[in-house]
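Dear colleague,

As promised, here are the two records you asked about, laid out in our usual form so they can be pasted straight into your sheet.

NAME FIELD: protein one
SEQUENCE, THEN STRUCTURE:
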Amino acid sequence: MILYLSNRLVQAVEIKDKNTVLVCQDMAPEGSIINGIVTDEEVFLSWIRNFWTENKLPRREWTLVVNSTQLNSRVLELPKTGNAELRKMIAREFADSRTEQTVFAYHVLDILPGGKMQRVFAVAAEKEFLQAYIRLFTHAGIELISIEPAISNFVRRFSASFEVQKKNSIVQIMDGQEIISILFVKGSYLYSQRNRIFAENDEKALAREAGAVVERILQFASSQHVEDPVEVLYLCGQNQSGLKTAIEENQEFTQKIIPRIYNDDKFKVRKRTGSTEKLEFVYPIGILQKKEKHIDFIHQMKWDSPENIKKRERLVLFLPAIAVFTVCLIIALIQGISYLGRNAELSRLQRTMQENSMVDDHTSYELADANIEGMEKKMEEAGIFWRQLMSYPTLTSEIRDVLEGCAGNAVTVEIKSFNRDSGVLSMSASAGDVRDINSFVAALQEQETFEAVEYTGYTLVKGQNNYNIHIVCALAQGAGREEAGE
């Protein structure tokens, strides 16, 4: 079950099966919720309880989809790596606005050519903003198991549409006094805007406002050198029929700016309410495209909880010991099976020697000795394998030398972490002169050792004539292995 909140319109969606979507919707009391923020908790709480009772909605396992400017979203190009390392990179990208209470949710938009880098849609929110919803719905007797940002929901919904994938398009979603505009290039998200509407009840004035937003997005597309023109405008959400007519009456807009305009018929879903059946635009339906746990704020808050942080820290401490124990257990199991097989063979030979008077004691001794020598050789080979396995390095001095050579005397660099599976190398670097930073980055980019060098800028350290450099490198395939194998 899914609940959508933004302004006055509230939608509750219950998915019965592929062909049945139950949509209950109503307008919250005026002034009780604005831009995703409950401004009058007492009035809204009373109303939401009545809304649940009147529509006979279940009270357990609800996903809340929130549309609010309190959610800060960005598109980032980051190395392809695991969740823990990716979350650290996202936090660094929000360094200019995040606090200790900031929670990050994200989903991957697409993998860039080469397979090493990816585009990530990341959203930041403050814990108190999210916990306020949890407390409110707990008081109403409703269980929230997930909170997701509406903008990510919209992006996933329209990206999966065959209509949007065919041509470059703009999707405009009307929600009360707000219009959300999203630019898609062949189904891939590129840019979005949120704009306050000042002519909500005047269709012609509203059409002019929506058209002005479209023109600004087209200018952005031109500045990004989007090759193919934007040909289609999709109008979704509230009050679309009159808005489409008003825009189409402006021939200059339809002829010179966007030739084709569709209302939300292409994005409506089947709705059943009692015995009637009709089509309706459902705001949060994008959540059904693909369930991703990393876009859920509640999941992220649990991940960041002190209890889970301690569990992960303990796991990191015990992981080497567990790995060593596992390898030793495997080796012991292999040797045990081999020993039992050899022992059974030796017993069989001994019985044969006892039964055959033609075989003397000397031959019996040589056979037994040969089997023992074979077992010792296998154990010695296993020991050599184990020493080679344990001596395999995670980071070689060769790579450190390359970093120090690029840094020279002007830049101070220190390796912080290395992800062996992805090849991502995190470091802290600083320099006293900005020009030295550019030389350092250029030197790294010239090295064959690195597949990708992600440089995101620098920060002046307050009170010091020093700059912190924000940079992450991805090692090339086979880097450092030659030295490790010697």
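NAME FIELD: protein two
SEQUENCE, THEN STRUCTURE:
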Amino acid sequence: MTAVDGSTPSPSSAPTPDRGLGVSARGAEIGDAVAGAIEGKPEAIRLALVTLLAEGHLLIEDVPGVGKTMLAKSLARTLDCTVRRIQFTPDLLPSDITGVSVFNQETRDFEFRPGAVFANIVIGDEINRASPKTQSALLEAMEEHQVTVDGSTYPLATPFMVVATQNPIEMEGTYPLPEAQRDRFTARLSMGYPERADEMAMLAAHGGGRPLDTIKPVATATDIAALIEQVRALHVSTGVHRYAVDLVASSRRHPDLRLGASPRATLHLIRAAKASAALDDRDYVIPDDIRRLAVPVLAHRLLLTAEAQIARRTSASVVEALVDQTAIPAD
């Protein structure tokens, strides 16, 4: 892993993986490397891989101490590409993220100094501790893969992924993510507490050292870019497209929701389904791919009505109900 000032990594001489099988095999290789530091969380690791191959961004939301940052750092360690970490704090400035133009006394001109967002993998730790103004500095970067500073636009490296963590319990000193920000995250996952056997294994592994230090890169930025191109080429039938649209559109009419999912959510759902199919060694998407990813891709974008909150319903339970109610296409 190389942490530099945002420069694009040099092309790799590694051969491009074969279509379909290459994605599955390389995904398993990356997943196994991450699992060396994360005990008993195969679904969380898979969702992180799906988000990476779908050209998306991941929000890891859970209580402190369950491995949110460890998952983000482990994924970054498996990739030989540029990685930057941003520790979000109330005094963090937008220019710390995007960069700033500085006057050069020698050249008598302004020169651009890239911020922390200029990397392949950007780890945003405790993102909800920064002010809304600072959070909004990521909006353009996450959606358009570019940054505009002082009227000049600078492209970001490829691939580009933001992995952000936040604690949903603590409220003091935090700022809730605005809906525009949440909608740019392809998926949200919760780590959850480990099973007893996994926690015992964690004590044995972490008690004698740092498993994170043993992770070696297994793919380059060029490899990941090639895998993403293969995922893009996967076939999605008209029926599966119709199913995704019907599922997302039903969220806009549900009585428990005052804000349904956006068209961007539909696009993210299809992209994630393609990545999931590729990891399963298929070159086509099936409705089960959509159903499997509906909750992590859609739930964090929805806003419950006051009545639903009083009744202690959750956005995840609403999505699960929508999945059960939406007819699966016959074609």
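A couple of things worth noting about protein two: The domain at 234-325 is CATH 1.10.8.80 (Helicase, Ruva Protein; domain 3). The chain has two domains: 21-227, 234-325.

Best,
R.
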